[in-house]
Every structure is written in structure tokens, then in C-alpha cells.
Amino acid sequence: xxxxxxxxxxGFVGSHLVRLxxxxxxxxxxxxxxxxxxxxxxxxxxxxxxLNIRDVQQAMIGINFVYHVAANPxxxxxxxxxxMRVNYDGTCNILQVAQQYPVQKIVxxxxxxxxxxxxxxxxxxxxxxKAQPTLADMPGIYCRSKLLAEQAALAAAQHGLPLTVxxxxxPIGPGDLLLxxxxxxxxxxxxxxNPAYLETTFNVIDVRDVxxxxxxxxxxxxxxxxxxxxxxxxxxxxxxxxxEELTGRNMPKRRIPYWVALGAAMVxxxxxxxxxxxxxxxxxxxxxxxTPMAFDTKKAKLELGLTxxxxxxxxxxxxxxxxxxxxxx
Length: 329
Description:
This protein is an alpha/beta fold.
């Protein structure tokens, strides 16, 4: 009774979750469109897509617990329809197939960005699980697709599917082979690609603590509830100071106004849509930065038992991994 399916188990969060589950004695199956880099010993890998019902059905055979982590986490895509197809349609496929099998529990991986965009969050200044985001609040198609997916997951829970939602904040730390947006942003600062910065507030959490939060949500999370998996609320300027202290590299001191960043992002995204080369500053990311993304994470700590590393420790481990992989110029 310990067979676990992890969709997206070859990604940043997914690969750390797979290692944690295997360490805890679970038999793990991964459904992913990518081959593992590298494969984890004794983990069963199924090459397939959450967009293919047959792939999902095959992956769920004999499964007791499901972690649905797979998503398109980027803030820009060559084909804008990919966000709805992967993040929303793929989630609906998982929910539909799970109802056909004796799955004991599902943990769905949502995102903090849909909560911080809610108008109620901006009024309070700090966001918790009580935020009620709407489609009109969302700053881009990525956020809209993730909001619709979370709403579908919570609706399925209300209709009897044993499901809990987790909303990780900004994951940082070692092991991001695909360089998701947070890792790419930090790497660009370290490599001197960004001469200035747009001040904003993030909540950052070590990716290994995100994996632990997923495990704890399966063990202790209430059905139909959401839990923000977060760590430290910190300004971007503070992150840059820590990076400078840890590496000795000069980080940018020049702060740019929001309207300048927004205009540059609009132009950058127009060129990206034409050339199909990802923009350095996606428009959705700049729009998200307009709202301080500070979070109250007491619920996950009290109800799940989540503990987290310091942001400094996570950044230090991340830099060591960048050096090991030769990512720093």
C-alpha cells in the first residue's frame, strides 16, 4: 500500500520529491514527458504525457497515492495555448482518471502566484490561504491556467475526491537542471546579465523543503484545503546583498522604476513572440512583481509540521550547485 505516482517527477520540485519518497520507503512511479537526468535507482519511469488519457490510465494502475506536480512553470511560451493544455487540461485528466481507480489521496501542486494576485491579498498586504483569487485578478495566461486548475482540483475534492492542494512559493536551491524562472533570475544576476533590478518582495523556500511539504500534505493535509508552502519573505535587494556576500561578485545597485520595467517587458515579449526566443523579463513576471508577494505560512507549519531552511542557506547551496554544473561565467 505504498505505491506512489509523481507526475512531472523529472522536474525541479518533482525530482526532489521522488528522492524524498524513495528515501522514506515508497515505491515510486514517475510519469513525465522527459527522460530523467539522471535516473534515480529503483524508480519506475514511464515516458508519457498528462495530456494523453491512456498514458495517465497506465500510470495509475496499482497506485495508492498521487502527487500531481507536472505543469508548465514558465511565464512565457512559444505557443500560448500550452499553458491551458498542460496546466488545466492535464490536471483535469488526472482528476478524471483518479476517480476510476482506488486512489487513497492526491496532492495537487498549485502556485503562490494566483493567491498574491487576488485583490483581497493586496488589501491585507500579506497573503494567506483565505485569499479568493478571480480570473480578473490574474496578470497573465500562466496564472489563469493555474487558477482554473486549482479550482477544478478543489471542486473535485468537494465532490468526494480525496485531494489536498499545496501552493509553493518561490523555490530555490540546488538541482534545477531545467532552470525554471527563479533559478534563471538568480543565475542571470550572478553572471552579470542584469545591470539593474526591479524592487519587489518574494517569499522564497528551499526546493527540498517544498518536497518535504508535499510529503507532509499527503500525511497530514486536510481534504479540500490548501496549504502555502513558504519560507522567508525577503526583498529582491536583500537577495542581491546575500549573493554578493556569498560570491564576492558585485550585484546591481541601480533600481529601475516599475513603469520602465513594464515597458521593457512589453517590447521584449513582442520580439520573443516573433523570434520564439524566450524573453529575459517575461511580462507576467514583471506584472507579478508589482504586488509584494509576502505570505503568511503559519498554516503549513502548524497543521502539516513543515520546517524550512534559511534563505541564505538555500542560496549558498544553489551557488555551489551552479559552480558544480559550470553555469557561472
